[in-house]
Amino acid sequence: MAQKHFVLDTNVLIENPKCITALRNGSENQIYIPYTVLTELDGLKKDPRIGHIVAQAVCAIRDDEQVHIFPPDFALTLTDDVMDDRILKEILHMAPEEAMLITNDRILQIKAKVYGIPSEEYRDSDPFRSESQRYTGFVEEGEELVHNCFRWEAGTPVFYSPEGPKPIGYTHEIWGVKPRSVYQNLALELMLHEGIDLVSIQSEAGYGKTFLSLAAALYLTLERKDNPYRKIYLVKPVVEIGAKMGYLPGDIEEKMLPYIKYIQDLLIKLHDIRPANRIFQDPSSDTWKLNPKKFEIQPVAFIRGMNIENAVVIVDEMQNLSRGETRALLTRMGEGVKCICLGDTRQVDNPYLNEANNGLNWTVKKLKGYKNYAHMVLKGDRSRGPITDIVLKSKL
User: Fold this and answer.
1) Element (H, E) at 198
2) Residue-wise pLDDT tens digits, 362-372
3) What is the pLDDT of residues 37-64, one digit of tens each?
4) In the sheet that 311-315 helps form, which strands lie side by side, from edge to edge?
5) How far apart are CA 229 and CA 191, in angstroms?
């Protein structure tokens, strides 16, 4: 088979930093990087949205001695305002005649045709996935087992719990809530297990992670006998977009209401399924004000200095916490605490964080393998409703 010569565009490197190795196919083909592409990567490295992916692409180029980088001499003489035009001129001047431009930019493909440069899309796109997405809580046959992981065996999920392997052939029902999928059922298994102190759940919107965690918290604090849990804390990072929290009227609960209204709605829904009178100050009132002795909502900043004991702690939207905030929060957990961390690393609202550099991803990356920690990616066919279903299936 004749050797091929591929010139990589910036967007291909960002979409899949592993494309260099894949396209070279051992030593079969030659890979070229225009100097202008390095200039573009340098300009993107501080972008909080994709900086972590750019860093991977740069490392892939730096660590691969077989990659050919066009010398800067010619590129630095170019004055075109559009970087794509510079890339095309570099290819004409520096690349072998038979070189193929690999780009997913359709305008650049058209321009390449005008210049007489052959081009192709890179079809094997592998978008960046954070650790909390890659490690789903399941391991494949032949892979090394992790504490508190699951593995499919003969069509049944087997839980490798602190006590040993345990087939999960039953379905949980707590606080009148039945799981809609096998993954929701396994998430409840982790939340309810006495030997697991810290659980993290990654999922897109609509898969029920908050609803399940609230149901588990009500069960653990109000129903289960001989348990150490006396109170529920809901902790949430506040990424302020509109009115600043400090200027909003009222106490902490009232200040937090714009950020956690959906939590209140879920609690009312659970209360309708089965009365949870003790978490409300006056269940007969329309205000649904929470009883601070049983259920307390706190912004992350207010947790510092506290020592939380004998409680179920739900950390919502953990992807909006920094690594330092995550450490500060989790080191507040004392004896008798069950902590359930929820989030989606694809929905980072904090402008200073990204898909990799956030509290949820750091938690999975650093704690995976500890005996009292478990993680799961919640997925399934059914979500909160038909509109959410089609949005998720369509990848909108």
Assistant:
1) strand 198-202
2) 999 999 999 99
3) 999 999 998 887 778 788 889 999 999 9
4) 295-299, 231-236, 311-315, 337-343, 198-202, 373-377
5) 13
